[in-house]
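User: Can you fold this complex?
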Amino acid sequence: MSQQDLYEKIVELAKRRGFFWPSYEIYGGVAGFYDMGPLGARLRKKIENLWREYFIHRHQDIIVEIETPIIAPEIVFKASGHVEHFTDPIVECLKCGRKYRADHLIEEKLGVKTEGLSPQELTKIIKEHDLRCPVCGGQLGEVKLFNLLFKTTIGPYSENVGYLRPEAAQGMFVAFKRVYEVMRHKLPLGIAQIGRVARNEISPRQGMMRLREFTIMEFEFFFDPENPHERLDEYLPRVADTKLRILTAEARERGEEKPEEYTVEEVIREGIIKVPWMAYWMAVARDFVHALGVPYENMFFEEKLPHERAHYAQQVFDQLVKVTRWGWVEVSGHAYRTDYDLSRHMKYSGHDLTVFRPYPEPRVVRVKKVVVDKAWVGRTFRSEAPRVFEAISRLSPEEVEKMLKEEGKVVVEGIEIPGDKIKVIEVEEKVSGRRFLPHVVEPSFGSERLLYVTLEYAYTEREGRVVLRLPRRLAPIEVAVFPLTRDEKLVEKALGIKRMLVDAGFTVYYDDDGSIGRRYARADEIGVPAAVTVDYRTLEDDTVTLRDRDTWKQVRLPVSKLLDALRRFINDNVELEKLGEPVEPSGG
Amino acid sequence: MSQQDLYEKIVELAKRRGFFWPSYEIYGGVAGFYDMGPLGARLRKKIENLWREYFIHRHQDIIVEIETPIIAPEIVFKASGHVEHFTDPIVECLKCGRKYRADHLIEEKLGVKTEGLSPQELTKIIKEHDLRCPVCGGQLGEVKLFNLLFKTTIGPYSENVGYLRPEAAQGMFVAFKRVYEVMRHKLPLGIAQIGRVARNEISPRQGMMRLREFTIMEFEFFFDPENPHERLDEYLPRVADTKLRILTAEARERGEEKPEEYTVEEVIREGIIKVPWMAYWMAVARDFVHALGVPYENMFFEEKLPHERAHYAQQVFDQLVKVTRWGWVEVSGHAYRTDYDLSRHMKYSGHDLTVFRPYPEPRVVRVKKVVVDKAWVGRTFRSEAPRVFEAISRLSPEEVEKMLKEEGKVVVEGIEIPGDKIKVIEVEEKVSGRRFLPHVVEPSFGSERLLYVTLEYAYTEREGRVVLRLPRRLAPIEVAVFPLTRDEKLVEKALGIKRMLVDAGFTVYYDDDGSIGRRYARADEIGVPAAVTVDYRTLEDDTVTLRDRDTWKQVRLPVSKLLDALRRFINDNVELEKLGEPVEPSGG
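Assistant: Here's the predicted assembly.
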């Protein structure tokens, strides 16, 4: 490898061949925004479709995909806690007015860990070490919290504040009850979404790895907290042999830095992962990221420490993948969100978001009930009596017991009920089921990061040039078609084959410009897994050669068998040697 | 049909079965936002993929798809003209403060056409007719222009204004040069994008038909304005027989309301559509919308009048489709944007966005050149001479001629050059090619509207229940699998078949709840084109019945042939009768 690091090489390739580049280049760019070029857009779509296959299609009984808007009214993110909690510490230079992420500044300049520190504590560190503005050397002000939600206004009234969603999740929580009904009241139920989200980072500086606008692939998996294994036995055997590499929070607190291996069964049995389904989804996540080309040994799950977790989460594992420039980076997060979000939306909306599950048989339970002397209420309050009954009905038995115990009477909405007219009794009741808020585990993936990771693991150099060894089925362009030379007859034949492949659904790279070796190289560089070459023998016996990007080996086969051979080669990963007669390679 | 109109029926079905519903329902909803439910999200994806097939895949030599961000810095929309022009007239009640679309209010209350009127003219009409607030009866203020861009801030500096894109187009214009390079300098070149856009409508009231956030499918088709037929001959034969129904602007001005039929060849030859490629794309658009289930007679293209066109467009056709509630509605727009956008971005960014095309052979042309007395400049300005040469080089020959004619000297950046030291001469020059800005035609489709239109044209009632006759390949769920009864053996067999279909990539509706007739009905209602039923004969000879949603006819075929039969039935639209032995239907 040359002096460029791998990230720079990929960025250069990505720009030159059309995977991605910084958005708004002609205007000098805006940090945190990237365009996907023709190849990048296709690669991303294939990664997303692979995600759909692993998480949705194979679980189509229990997971559905929906789409909700990017813009949401303010109340949604007040309820979710994002208006309050979704912040980063910011500090301003008092001289030049530049603004910085306070924690990053401290970590860079002093090498001190800052996670979990308050703005006051950060300010104190800055003052103590007399940290200055890195650009003008000016004094820095107080550290404040900067909210990362992009803010806007919905409609013509300025008071109707809206935000761009920083995660797709809230769309699923807000629509949960509707989807639950559409899916005929089944649990567990996963609601998935692939879509754009936006986070107004203070100063994003990691290129494709930290974007202000990006694509999330995530689902909220709702389950009955009293029955957390429900339906798991139908799926668990698929990952029975899967070993998860996990660095637990407990191990991290002990100073461990290396993950340990556990079987899925083990992490469930030992409670290392609190929710059994979460362990299952982490196993699927491991296999999915592996299918993108990442070896198992280059990924593991890191449990977050309490102060590292988002406000809604009771347990979180980040799936980390090793990349050359940044070391271990997060490609997915797995959070146990409990019933936090549903309970908050229930509170803020006033809508009942609980679900009802009947018991197999009605149960007899002892319940407390408030009993009031109805005749006395009627006599005393007359036409106001209905209002009094209603007010009392809103009290819980526990509240009434407390008031009776402490004050000997019950006061509700200004109405006084003497202690001898109201009491709490215990009765036996038949209960046909229970109402509860489902709990949620959430696997969440960043699409652009995965795209970068996929490119990095595909990138190889051979004989001084780039061969992008993308998993065949992810390759943005599936097949190249080349006439050996620009001979009119060869070109005509090659164009006919190209048309046949396009009609059959393939995306084809046709090229007749330059030597065949150079054309193979151009195709290798963007990861085209198969190249079909039309040569003079083709004109005689209607056979073509098929070349494997990775081995540079070739076989010869009849044009009539080409479609089927390509499908098997690309979709089923069949070896080239099984698809035709071996030939000596004619070019690099 | 009952008293509900078709729109209400579809909205009810959409909510109940999960196609779409208003977003943020639990918070009372926000006008202009809709969620796509499990079925809607799948249907939309299939519509988008069909669009990709018609426009991108079949034209993969000349069209590529990219993705650009939803958020853009202010300068992009200053350059595009949206900050200035993307407005609607708004009027506020001086008493209650409510705000209305001024033009809609006038049209509703007075039945007067308002298109093209200025805020002053609208205000005048309101005053003259003493139009009042429809809610409180208060007096209305002056009509103002309200900008429909959603505004936000990028990063922590409040002066860094950003907007959400109201169209995907600007992303393609800003990235044009990069994509043009990646695609090796070929014209014509289409750059496509499918993505979210947002328009801050003042008071959207047409449900799914007018959204504040929606999905656009559009491409900018860049071509050489001096060679507007380039490569068209490769594609035109495909639509040679296509007849376009067009209501021209000229006919509309004559008071015509009915479209006339023209062949594609005719509209090009007669210049009815100014750009040949635009005619071609309109023909493809016609076939695409037809493939969604809209009969040709229920669609036509309406040319917009000059005052109805967006600020960037020189000719616009709307593709209109008839829907029951709103009459003719726009599902796509076809605009000739000239080089407006590229020239504006060139001006605002200072980047050269022209392309260079070599002539087949260098041409000799007579060009004007500015000649300055170099020795005199050197003597006179000494060390400043290079700056003077540079300043002069920025002047065009025409500018120099004009100054010499009017003032007898040339003044540039404060430097004065006497008339005898500078002149304009004509010389012969070899020119190897030309630099120019490509022109653009843009076909643009609204995905959610097309989804609604698709549902409306698929909706039928038969024997008192709904049969959603979606084109088979668009159906969100491709196949239903039913055991005839809940007999354990039938259920086991049916689940095995279901697994086989899922593994083969099908999305399957499995149901064993209730009578077989009711289950067929539930599947028909959401448009599942094929239903496989496992009955007692299946246990004997491993055959199943396959039922056609539209004819309710059934055939019997071996399980071993099921996969292939379903692929042919759904993807290739093969008739049911060709897939097995006819049987008497066993249920409704």
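The CA atoms of residues 95 and 558 of chain A lie 74 Å apart. Chain A touches chain B through 78 residues (CB under 8 Å).
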